[in-house]
Amino acid sequence: MLLLLLISPFSFSNAVTQRAFAIGKCLSKHMEVSLLVTGTSFKKYFLDSIEIIEFPFLLDRRERNNWARITSWVSSLPFKLLYSLSRYETFYTFKTLPLANICGLVNKKIKKIQWISDWDDWEGKEGLGQFDPPIIRDFLDVYEKRILEKPDSITCCSKFMEKTLEKIRNKDEIFYIPNAIFLEDFESIEKISIHHPSIFFGGSLGKVSELEIIIESISMVKEGFPDLKFLVAGVGEKMNSYKQLVNRLKIRKNVVFLGKIPKSKVNSYVKYSDISVIPMKLNIQNLARCPVKISEYMACGGCIVSNPVGEAKGFLKNSGVLIGYSPEEFSEAFYKLLSDSKLRQKIKKKALKDVKKFEWKKITKKFVSQFI
Predict the structure, then answer these.
(1) Under 8 Å between Cβ of 177 and 23
(2) Nearest residue to 57 (alpha-carbon basis) of 35, 81, 74, 36
(3) Comparing 116-125, 226-235, 278-287, 327-336, which segment has the lowest mean pLDDT?
(4) Is the pTM of this model over 0.85?
């Protein structure tokens, strides 16, 4: 039996949840799999073939500051730790963060069982840690490098991470598993009425979002396409600053903030918009991560414009449009695509064909084989 531990709240809007559940689903074809998560109350149930075990946050989690977040996670840790020591043969932790890895370390030391860790984000100074207070950022930077030496094996979501791990681990202990899709999830996409010409972006508008450059490019493209609509789906801390930028550039009629919309609607917008955009600035954070939306947009048949950074370069090399990171280059790409419907359709068809290589069953085949 295998135990998957997920420290984050169990929500399929969360990329870590999607990743843990998908890998667990592939493993569950060959063994019993449990997923230990944080929820609103203690409960056990099955989702597909995976046993879900939810432990509640014991402290008030409504406050959004770092201290409230840490104390709420710590409050459920003893229960997760005791439960994880009960009956599992393999322990698989997601996120290279202390609260997940404490459980992994204890299980490895006490029960002498196999411990696997998943690395899906760069948590240190040049990654997500850059947004944390200095004391937390510096700790995570040191901690992340040390903890990667401890598990028996590691899964990672990007080639950049794989190469980083090869400096400190044996190659046979590393499994490259980029974020993929289940093709059946995209067999039926709801048809929607949509404005043309249109460019779509879907994702968080939080602190790591990079939408300024696209908004600036829209102000250039609208000179040739005055009726252009830039459709933005998502919410987050930077939404107000984006709206201010739109007002400053005098393109309010060209930019529509849709707010938070269901995943099914995102798929529809990707399929029926003329262009979908995934901006990827060259930095450690983007080199290390593998946005789930890349393979999802391909599966929707999106005409994707992005940048040759990290996993986007590999996924979209022949299935999208990869350009330099500047408003001018984005606007040039948008203008060319909006002017050529045949080119857009060619790119959409190629994406639908190539995404078959990025199906979870194929992506996890090597990793799963070690358990069979």
Answers:
(1) yes
(2) 74
(3) 116-125
(4) yes
